[in-house]
Amino acid sequence: YAPLRARGALIGLLAIESNQSERFDERDRQVLESFVEPVACVLRGMRIAGMRPGRSILVMGSGLSGLLHVKVARMLGASFVATTDLDDTRLAAARRFGANAAWRASGFSC
């Protein structure tokens, strides 16, 4: 593995196979840079929450951070992932990212 050399606080922790490094152009590197910190935050949150394979998770909101939580939870072996949002387009995206259930958050009262 060869480190991906780029600007960013956490990018130095990303490793790729050395024979793949020439496939990344500058735009690819910028995209990777933009996701390293948000994914690191998601992983930290999952660790703090005690996420383990077989657990169920509810993600409140299906924006960028919510979608990353859905994807990482599935990658970590969550047995059931549900998400909420007010926007049907975001709920559809959550399903594509691996949510078992995506519920519209409108109409509920406390």
List key phrases describing it:
globular, disordered N terminus, 3 helices, alpha/beta, single chain, 5 strands, 110 residues
Short overview:
This protein has 110 residues and is α/β, with parallel strands linked by helices.
Secondary-structure map with pairings?
Blueprint: E1 2-3, E2 15-16, H1 26-49, E3 56-60, H2 64-75, E4 80-85, H3 88-97, E5 101-104
Parallel strand pairs: 3-4, 4-5
Antiparallel strand pairs: 1-2
Helix pairs in contact: 1-2
Tell me about this structure.
The protein is of the alpha/beta class and 110 residues long. It has 3 helices and 5 strands, in the order ββαβαβαβ. It has helices at residues 26-49, 64-75, 88-97, and strands at residues 2-3, 15-16, 56-60, 80-85, 101-104. A 3-stranded parallel β-sheet has the order 3-4-5, covered by helices on one side. The longest helix is centred in the middle third of the chain and has 24 residues, at 26-49. The model is unreliable at 1-13 (pLDDT under 50).
Largest sheet: 3 strands, parallel
Compute the number of strand runs. 5
In what range is the share of β-strand residues?
Answer: 15-25%
Question: Ends: how far apart?
Answer: 51 Å
From the spread of the alpha carbons, the general shape counts as globular
Give the strand order of the largest sheet, numbering strands 1, 2, ... along the chain: 3-4-5
Can you give the mean pLDDT? 81
Encode the helix/strand succession as letters.
EEHEHEHE
Rg, please?
16 Å
Oligomer: single chain
